[in-house]
Amino acid sequence: MPFGLIEKLTPSDENLVDYILWTGAYDFQEYPFRDADALVLCMLSYFDMKMLFTDGRTEIKLKELLPFLENGQSLPQLTGPDGGSSDIARAACLSKRFGELSVRNHEDILQTAPPLQFAAMSFHDEGDMNFLAYRGTDSSLAGWKEDCMIAFTRTDAQKMAADYAKRVLSQADAWYMGGHSKGGNQVIFAAAQQSDEELEKVKRIYMLDGPGMCEDVYDLALIRRIEPKVTAVIPEFDLIGRFFETKIADTRIIKSVNPEGLGQHALASWEIDHGELSRGEPSEKAEWTMHVINSWLSEQPQDERRLLVDELFDALSVGGTKDLNEITLDRFLDVLLELRRSSKTTRENFIELPKKFLEEQLPPAARPGRALFADGYKDIVLGGAIALIGLILCLLSGDHLLDYAALITMGLVAAYQIYVTVRRFRDRKGRTAGLRDRMYIAIAMIALFIVLIVKQDAAFLLGSLIFAVLFLALAYRQSLYISKARKTSHKAFYVAETAVCGIFGVSFLLIPKETVEEYTLALGIALILDGLTRLITLYLKNK
Fold it and tell me: Is the domain of 84 the same as that of 211?
């Protein structure tokens, strides 16, 4: 598509590449600065440009980056796959709007001890468009540790961001500022430290899905001072931006081409609608998830947060690991073993997190009237379903049940991944931008399904693991009801359920293949009895 063909686009077509193609023939005097430009420039700040600032050079044209993109020398400093960000950079370099921009004040610093990851640069046209961009977190452990450190201290990168802004803002009279992820946290920290005189120069501050400030270590009144100039942009399924969420009045929720999950944090996945941010709706699941995590953190004293972060990253760096991409399955097992050697305080705090998630899912106390009937109806359905599952297990019990369970489960997962990937590929008219993560997942699911078919006992092992995890999780969940039960009979019921689920969970981890039929028959009988007990208890209670 040639640059400037606005009428060729429809809302379903538009992402950041399309926006660049749409506006690429016009400079910032012909087509003034838009919110989408902030997204593009923050995306560009992720690309390695160190090789261009050699021999004393302090300024380059963005288009000079193109050869290094093409030969793979300039890679996006991101965690995980590219996700289409390289397509954004190439389109920007080829356009008049972005390719002719000057890049100045380039800084890119990474050190392990003390942990520090900081990168920033400024973009300038020949008029009055000046944009200061802070890079988000790369894949280094140092960068991620520094991110977590905002839970208990002001970080070196935050202080460096403030000093950088003070130095750079003095170079022009009009500025936009922005950052994505960690860069979003740095941009509001830096802006809040500036004098009133310097802030007068700032037209707009873009906080793109960045974590907020922990009120235990930062005076939030400083953020309120700059809030009228701040625009926060977060995806529908937002996790990072709700970490120590700092409420911003002008918060815009943007759609992502990625499905619900952490993948929506990827800036390259955000959608544009005819030059404007494609507005979405917040995910209740994401809000609930971050409510639990923030609540879990707030209950820990600062010294315990510091200890948790230190011991977690000590474990992650076992074997000399310096980058998240270096953590293979073998190293991950080493990390888990290392975490077992952490302090009692850290282990207890880690255990509290899944407990809080399970506690949040407990049903509310029964209310009189219609609510009581609704709860009773749920109990009828639950009891009937448990008894029915038990009956099915009794009828289908056999030595190959776990194999079939694993094959059916993975077959359904693989089929779903293929269906969604093909549908999104078709909807995007054959373009893979923003779909690479999902394509990798679909390929991995297909490969795993094939392994289950051809590898001896692989399906049995996976089936055993599925059943074991399911029943151990149920045992833990039922154990939470024991302390909440008021009647001794109810406590005894929950104790019995916890014990039975725990026994079956451990059994499925240990049983040999030739005894599966006996265990599944026993499990079926136990489930039938459990379901019938629930139904009889409910009948007697309402009699």
Answer: yes
Pairwise CA distance, residues 316 & 318, whole Å = 6
Residue 150 lies in a domain: no
Tokens 């700032």 sit on residue: 202
Are 121 and 105 contacting, i.e. CB atoms less than 8 angstroms apart? yes
> What is the pLDDT at residue 1?
33
Same domain, 535 and 396: yes
Mean pLDDT value across residues 133-159: 86
Residues 80 and 186 in one domain: yes
Nearest C-alpha neighbor of 314 from the set 337, 345, 348: 337
Which of 34, 53, 170, 161 minimizes the C-alpha distance to 98? Answer: 34
205 and 344 both lie in a single domain: no
Residue 179 sits in a domain whose CATH number is 3.40.50
pLDDT in tens, 44-91: 999 999 999 988 899 999 999 999 999 888 888 876 667 788 899 999
pLDDT digit string (tens) for 399-419?
A: 666 677 777 777 887 787 787
Q: Give the domain extent around 443.
A: 370-542
Q: Which amino acid is at 93?
A: C
Residue type at 372 in one-letter notation: L
Contact (CB, 8 A) for 343 and 314: no
Confidence of residue 245 (pLDDT cuts 50, 70, 90): confident
Go through 463-502 and write b for each residue having 16 or more CB atoms within 10 A of its CB, e for each that does not: bbebbbeebbebbbbbbebeeeeeeeeeeebbeebbebbb
What amino acid occupies position 536? Answer: I
Tell me which H or E stretch contains 311. Answer: helix 302-316
CB atoms within 10 A of CB 191: 26
Q: In this structure, what DSSP letter does residue 60 have? A: E
